[in-house]
Amino acid sequence: MNPAVKNTFLFALVGVLLIGTGIIQGWNSTLVILNMGLISAIMALGVNLQWGFAGLFNIGVMGFVALGGLATVLVSTPPVPEAWEAGGLRILAGLVLGAATVVAAVMVQKRLQGRTRTLATLVILVGGFFLYRAVFDPGKVAVEAVNPAVSGNLGGLNLPILLSWPVGGLLAAGAAWVIGKTALGLRSDYLAIATLGIAEIVIAVMKNEDWLARGVKNVIGLDRPVPREIDLQNDPGFVERAASLGLDPITASTLYTKIGYAVLFTVVLLIILWLAQMALNSPWGRMMRAIRDNEVAAEAMGKDVTARHLQIFILGSAICGIAGAMMTTLDGQLTPGTYQPLRFTFLIWVMVIVGGSGNNFGAILGGMLIWWLWVQVEPLGLGLMNILSAGLAEDSALRDRLIDSAAHMRLLTMGLILLLVLRFSPRGLIPER
Amino acid sequence: MDILNALVAFANFVFVPGLAYGAQLAIGALGVTLIYGILRFSNFAHGDTMAFGTAITIIVTTALTGLGITFGPLPTALIALPFGILGTILLLLGTDWAVYKFYRQQKASPVILVIVSMGVMFVMNGIVRFIIGVREVNFADGERFIITAREFRTMTGLNEGLAIKTTQAIAVVVAFIVMALLFWFLNKTRTGKSMRAFSDNEDLALLSGINPDWVVKVTWMIVAALATTAGVLYGLDKSFRAFTYFQLLLPIFAAAIVGGLGNPIGAIAGGFVIAFSEVTITYAWKKVLTYLLPEPLEPDGLVQLLSTDYKFAVSFAILIIVLLFKPTGLFKGQSV
Lengths: 433, 336
Fold this sequence. Notes:
By secondary structure, chain A is mainly α. Chain A has helices at 3-25, 27-54, 61-76, 81-111, 114-145, 164-183, 188-208, 210-213, 229-233, 236-244, 249-280, 283-293, 295-300, 305-331, 341-355, 360-388, 397-405, 409-424, and strands at residues 219-220, 333-334. Chain A folds into two domains: 3-79 and 155-424, Orthogonal Bundle (ABC transporter involved in vitamin B12 uptake, BtuC); 80-154. In chain A, α2 (27-54) packs across α15 (341-355) and α16 packs antiparallel against α17. By secondary structure, chain B is mainly alpha-helical. Chain B has one domain: ABC transporter involved in vitamin B12 uptake, BtuC, CATH 1.10.3470. In chain B, α11 packs across α12 (264-282). The longest helix of chain B has 36 residues, at 3-38.
């Protein structure tokens, strides 16, 4: 079977799975899975750029996704004028001071020598920290005291939410630049630990800095780029068109908004895929793969390995940030408590490995396929457990145990799939060409 | 000025908890560092191995208390610990046979093994949830305190109390025993010496007739014992939740790297460095400073450098600083 036929077959398989879901569980479920699948595919493209093209081991995807989510709040929510009056400027001044401290410390590190250097760095860092806290803390307390039940944060810029997608990418890129500058020179597994740590810190900041995006109090009711269902149901024109298609207005409106999202996501996915393909087949892409396959040789050829790594690390993280902003837009709410590394970092890695690292189509296939599985393993597992325990008595403890444990099938299945693919088909479903 | 009260407050809120946490981290980091030294990869499944061992121990503990067997004032989990270790040894040897062996024979690069360990992490996480669920489990029984704050106050007449939990003392004592045993094993026994040789120079070790399969098996067994012990000590001191064990991965790796990956002494030192920095930086120093400083200088705020929610940030910051300035760690570790 030649590769083109095989790839078409694999994508058709995903299509069949989605259509099957539609027939058995309803078209709304299909669209829910499809939308998250598209977002997962974009995240997988980002990770594939870093791992597949450049061999960078980033397991902090969750952090970049969360930063994208933060962007939606900062861009789309209306500002809270009372909070800005209470301490907005103080907070900004504090942040600037904090940044200045770090910059000064880095400058001292670069310019000075020996013991003066150590001493000066310490003085700057410690002094800067207390100065920052002295300026920042009162502002934070004042802002968080402003109407904490509904706001307690500074709010955003009140711009259209679609704008938050590129902004999310920029935020993630900024964070990636800082991490890359410090950690990219290190060995691969040190970079892994560093990114893992940064992701946890990003989540900790988002949970605890209420002035930013309300922390664990969550931001709900974000703007939407597509019409709300209730508006559609109240629109006589829409109800009429739905009726002409033989649908009741409620189903029609839910399908309509979901299809709207799906179209938007597909457009973004196609743009990113096109860019990634162009990059892969350009001289730049060939250089990246050369660096990945043999850093020493590439360096001998005059390639600046660290700078190229930094570049691709930022690009891949930015894509994850964009996907994160899209996901929060789809959810309509930012809930920092729901970001889990297993779901937002390691699952994306399963997608990339299973799909085929180094191949953009593989990443997309992996994203859609693994996401479908992730959603469906639980009902499938429950079915399996019901069959397994069918012979047991109604009140048997073993039966209850089996049925209860179906809920935990997901992680086990994902791990098994990852291990099996790594063992028997290490290059993934659609291997790199 | 009241140095005595300040010291007691410091011991109660910083030193004792830091020591217990440091002991737990150190044993966890020893496991990571041994795998790195001998099998040559960073094992991301270590947190979940700890969770598995603890889960087995909890189940055996429940069975034992059900039979009416307890350990007097000490937690019953200590009797159940060997069973937990045994279960974990079986799991790890099975995992090695089914998963890692293949890549070892292929001489796969370390980063592939790290990804493989990610898959193992998923599977183990699933298994732990199967056998014990996701709820929080408290399995410490026996005496809760060696000395309570109130007893200490009446005994010494000081304002401040010093409470020492039984579990904290057990953590330190057990950790000390485990470390002593491990170093005796590595330095005095034939197998231990061959493990060190294997870690130093694989080819030379093979040339001198060391059986690599045996070394690998023994390593997994020791790692199982270390991981289960660390997990049980942590669970006794705090409580058991599958998810917190996964999160322990970060401070444990930080400890192992700060000490120097592959270096057992480094892992212990790293464990205490990370633990004490986390506790000191997230502790509100107001109480201690109030005792120490003259009245006009007494602080108004809590004098807490960072809120406790940022304890990850502390271990992480230390990790980065050490990596930037001393990439092989405080004690010289290996770099592959």
